[in-house]
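Hey, I'm writing a tutorial for new members on how sequence and structure tokens pair up, and I'd like a real worked example in the thread rather than a made-up one. If someone can provide the structure for the chain below, I'll link this post from the tutorial.
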Amino acid sequence: MTEPSSPDSRSPPGKRSPTDTNEHQPPGDWKHHPELYMPDGTMLFLADNTLFRVYPGLLSKHSEVFRGMASLSECQPPDSEIYDGCPVVRLTDDAEDLAFFLSATMGLQSFHCHQPTSFQFAAAILRLATKYMVAPLRRQAIEHFSRIIPTRFDEIGNKECYKQVFGDDPPHPFALVSLFRECQIPYFLPWAFYLACNQGFEKLVGGASHNDKPIHLSEADRCIALLSWKKLRDATLHIRRTTVMSRATHCKQGACNDSLRMCWLDTAFHGVRSDAMEQWKLFSLLARYDESTVGTPLPNLREITPCSSCVISWSILEQNGRVVIWTMLPQTLGLPNWEELRQEHARSIATT
């Protein structure tokens, strides 16, 4: 028996392709999963070269896809593939992912959205709960990932740290983009793409390494990320430039002149990245300032501090600029605006 169609058959980089199947593997190459080969199970799943013997009736309670598999197994054609007295369903899923998913679905291993869970486990639950339409597990997995994904500007820096959510197995931003794309969660994509852009141009183009394994974005997502990286980098520089060149209405210090602002502006051009959501730590930048990197020696900027009125004004202007960039982030990535994404996400959760 072949695998039924799924809601989304796309595979992220590093995962199995739907064409990379176990179709030609002979039974002699198969092995039983050490914990999920039930002696009294009545259906076999083959993933990679690993056999899972399961209870189709139990799985059918949670998924209409498994319900369909179970009904088909009751009416096997004469040429159906049989092993150990059970019909075999060949799947394109990764064997480790399938083991996590089956264990959680059959209640053999708990998955709770508010407990630290490795990224591999959580991603497997989200990926396969989406594919096989197991609504309760999908909702829990989405809630789990929502603990690290800001969807409002005031949540930036106030979400849980990766270690609290994933323990010692934090995800790479490229993996998050691929996972949320595959599992049709566009509401989480703006932040995932933002983190991916912050990996820098070289890694966006050539890929990165995570846990000693290569990882990269799909070709389509790489193009989106590269365009967004350039836009975010330009936006970062625009915020710095417009902030530094502004003057508070009640400027209290004669030193707040054009010469001082040009010094600060020169500093603003150094180390520009795509991290437009991060507050520019001006005084931290001053501490790293190196006069040898510019053509004309400039005064020691640490000795030239704007007046308090200008400092307050700069802080407000910079934050307002970051709010604007955040508001436009989904459109920068070619996605609907935040409100449309929020409404679509709420409908998706309600109908799952």
